[in-house]
Design goal:
By secondary structure, this protein is of the alpha+beta class. The chain has four helices and three strands.
Length: 87
């Protein structure tokens, strides 16, 4: 599977499972980085946030399509602040 196809698949699986405002996926062949943005994360601990994002990816992690995954989750206000300071 090509890098772009994997990024699309990861985005699709996450968007089908969660109601997110934004999801950004970057896959470089060895590591998949995911930024997920939604106010649904407000009431969840950091671990629960990551579990929510990783759960729809369980099959493609298990089959080895992706193996190293970094997840960052933000509510909308945190995302705006992160973009401001990291752009």
């Amino acid at each position: 599977m090509e890098v772009g196809e994997i990024e699309e698949l990861v985005s699709k699986l996450i968007n089908e499972a969660l109601e997110l405002d934004e999801v950004h996926v970057k896959f470089d062949g060895s590591q998949c980085r995911i930024n997920a943005v939604s106010d649904m994360f407000d009431d969840l601990s950091r671990v629960k946030r990551q579990q929510a994002v990783l759960k729809p990816l369980a099959d493609i992690i298990k089959d080895g399509t992706i193996h190293a995954v970094t997840v960052k989750t933000f509510n909308k206000a945190q995302w705006q602040r992160d973009k401001l300071f990291n752009s």
